[in-house]
Design a protein that fits this description.
about 425 residues, about 0% strand, mainly alpha, two-stranded antiparallel ribbon, 2 strands
Length: about 425
């Protein structure tokens, strides 16, 4: 009985061994692809080193980048982007300062009118009290009215000197022209191969705009009452350097008919548009000068009259000066700064500048003997037509009307429909 468990365990082991026996499969001879002996990390490192060396070799040779068949100088691109950033900053500055100076105009206008009317009211009350025997209220009213008129006179002298409405218009024009220059640089980067000439031209335009529309008031402010009205100039006087451009035709878009048309448009702008806006600017300047002198003069007379209110020997004329002159000063101040006569003058001056710029552009192209160095004739014609607010057919109609009016001694049509 003691040997039974031992024999049963041996029998069970035999069953397990027999169940684990696997029949032998027939062997077949086949070969796997031979893997490279180089390590994977070493292979990737070698390839990346080879690619980097292949890319860096041309950069050491030439710093320009080739896109298709056109080479771009990265330094020129960087300078143009630097100019764009400076122009964007100037746009924001001129916009903010323009709003600030427009606020000056409204606040000073309302404040001076309130001061002047208060002085006139006190002078009238003093004249009423002067008929009684009460002396202290009369003295207080006379003194208050005189001080108010004197302060209004000083404020009017300052505001008439700086002309806040004209200052605001200058900053609005500057912001618009800087936006225009910003768009020109973006167009140059988009459709042209920019060169160092483009950078110099853009830099000169920025500096010319800074000079034409200064930000500070002291020392650099434009003369608000010039002896002679001249168009505003915000472009560099130096003739731009143009490269020879080759278009589909050898004439660069210019024909004999187009040259004659540009010459006639140039003559019409000089005879009609520029002369008319300079004439209107002269009228606005005269009106503004007259109002600027009249305002402080009237408040000064009102201050002088209010000081003598209540005296028996000077009663009638003192009241007239103290009250009526103050009211007239309020009317004059409202006409000048409420009507923004300075802004109107600046608008006429800048509009004359637009025509002067077009005239110089057309003259510069017509004086250029090498046609390939001119601006493209078709593009120039379209640009002039758009700035004058006309279509190309209407532009040709202006030329025909000019010919007929000169032959019949009739009135000539204005070149511009936009202004």
């Amino acid at each position: 009985m003691a040997t039974l468990p031992q024999s049963s365990s041996l029998w069970q082991r035999g069953i397990v061994r027999s169940s684990l026996l696997v029949p032998k499969l027939p062997t077949s001879h086949f070969s796997l692809p031979k893997l490279p002996t180089r390590d994977l990390v070493e292979e990737l490192s070698y390839r990346s080193l080879n690619i980097t060396t292949h890319i860096e070799k041309p950069l050491h040779k030439n710093t320009s980048t080739r896109v298709g068949s056109v080479e771009f100088d990265p330094m020129v691109i960087a300078k143009l982007y630097l100019l764009k950033e400076a122009i964007e900053d100037r746009i924001e500055m001129h916009k903010n300062i323009g709003e600030q100076r427009n606020n000056w105009n409204h606040l000073l206008l309302n404040s001076i009118n309130a001061i002047t009317l208060s002085g006139a009211t006190m002078a009238a009350l003093a004249a009423t009290i002067g008929t009684t025997t009460v002396a202290p209220p009369l003295l207080a009213l006379k003194l208050s009215s005189t001080l108010l008129y004197l302060s209004a006179t000083g404020m009017l002298c300052v505001i008439n000197k700086i002309q806040p409405s004209q200052l605001a218009e200058e900053q609005r024009n500057a912001a618009r022209l800087f936006k225009q220059l910003h768009a020109q640089i973006e167009t140059t980067l988009a459709i042209k191969n920019p060169t160092i000439v483009d950078v110099k031209e853009a830099m000169e335009k920025v500096l010319a705009l800074d000079k034409a529309f200064p930000l500070p008031l002291l020392g650099a402010m434009l003369d608000k009452f010039p002896s002679r009205v001249e168009p505003a100039v915000w472009w560099p006087k130096r003739k731009p350097e143009r490269e020879a451009r080759f278009w589909k035709n050898d004439k660069n878009g210019w024909t004999v008919e187009l040259e004659e048309e540009m010459k006639e448009i140039l003559g019409v702008m000089k005879r009609r548009d520029s002369a008319e806006y300079l004439r209107l600017g002269q009228i606005a300047l005269k009106v503004n000068r007259m109002l600027a002198i009249s305002g402080p003069l009237l408040t000064g007379l009102a201050a002088f009259g209010s000081a003598f209110v209540g005296l028996s020997s000077h009663g009638s004329w003192a009241v007239m000066f103290g009250v009526v002159a103050g009211v007239l000063a309020t009317v004059v101040n409202t006409l000048e700064h409420g009507g923004q006569v300075g802004m109107v003058f600046e608008m006429y001056r800048s509009t004359a500048g637009i025509f002067k710029l077009m005239e110089e552009t057309i003259e510069g192209n017509l004086d250029e003997g090498n046609i390939k160095r001119r601006e493209n004739g078709e593009l120039l014609e379209m640009d002039v037509a758009l700035k004058l607010g006309r279509s190309l057919s209407e532009l040709n109609g202006v030329v025909n009307t000019s010919y007929s009016s000169r032959s019949k001694d009739g009135s000539e049509e204005f070149a511009s429909k936009l202004f």
